[in-house]
Write a structure and sequence with these properties.
Two copies of one chain form a homodimer. By secondary structure, chain A is mainly α. Chain A has helices at residues 10-17, 21-29, 48-62, 67-75, 84-118, 129-135, and strands at 37-38, 44-45. Chain A folds into two domains: 1-62, Orthogonal Bundle (Multidrug-efflux Transporter Regulator, Chain: A, Domain 2), CATH 1.10.1660; 83-141. The structure holds a DNA duplex.
Chain lengths: 141, 141
DNA sequence: CTAGACCCTTGATCAAAGTCTAGAGTCAAG
DNA sequence: CTTGACTCTAGACTTTGATCAAGGGTCTAG
């Protein structure tokens, strides 16, 4: 097996995972990263799994999950002792959350698209459907 | 002439527009609402246009605009000649952003769904594809 | 040994979009 | 006139997700 050197410093991990050092310590405080081993000096000592986890967090974040949701997602792997069934249920809940998020975005998207299609892109603001839809009728202030 | 009595209090406006009083004052500070007339006592005095504008803000917010973007939209809507085009462009940019987000969510949704489908929901945790994906994840970046 | 790079903790600060508080003045009803 | 609801200002606080600063200890190369 490879990788038997669990002695990455926080700076190295930060660089490889593409996040700031402060962010790593912040995630640790927030319970998204486990507390790492420490050297005698007190320096945090990581191995590759920390980098993997940080990348996982970053991707999930890019997808619009909050850190709290990500913590739940990560907690799935800690649920081992509670059995595969609980894990599957929680994953299904995540899926439902994602579906709801997609549905909400789709609703917004369609409202916007209709407005854009109806807008000539020039002329009198009074005629712009985007502005009119937002303003509702009878402004004339 | 149904000459409207322009003497709505902030509380009435808040109730009709469906926002909090503090939010109205906050929007005023932030330049999203014009400063209203004042009574001799100092009380803010609104008319219906304030309600319309608050609804405009709320709709734009629902469409994913930030308050800063909304401030821009409100300013643009006053510009007869350039306003409409810029409004349409910004709306189109919002639409593109939303599309990208939907695409990302759809992608992760399908990955998650496949994991769930492949998971028996019982048995050895080592065999659970969900746990395995979370544990290892990320082959390369 | 010493300089410079790195790491430690604690606590402050930021941005967004409000929300809430304190202390004081005002308005409408009874 | 008094009571209670309403409004005023200024400024502090909230949440999320970090980022920075101060004041120190550690590590490594020359």
């Amino acid at each position: 097996m490879n990788s038997q050197s669990p002695s990455l410093t926080i700076g190295t991990v930060a660089k490889r995972a593409g996040v700031a050092i402060d962010t790593i310590r912040f995630y640790e405080r927030e319970g998204l990263l486990p507390e790492p081993l420490r050297r005698a000096s007190g320096y945090r000592s990581y191995d590759d799994s920390a980098i993997n986890r940080l990348r996982f967090i970053r991707r999930a974040k890019d997808l619009g999950f909050t850190l709290e949701e990500i913590r739940d997602l990560l907690a799935l792997s800690v649920d081992r002792h509670r059995g595969v069934k609980a894990v599957k249920q929680r994953a299904a809940q995540r899926l439902a959350d994602i579906d709801a998020r997609i549905a909400e975005l789709t609703r917004i998207r369609q409202g916007l698209e209709q407005l854009i299609e109806a807008c000539p892109g020039r002329g009198d603001p009074e005629q712009c459907p985007i502005l009119r839809a937002l303003a509702d009728e009878e402004p004339q202030a």
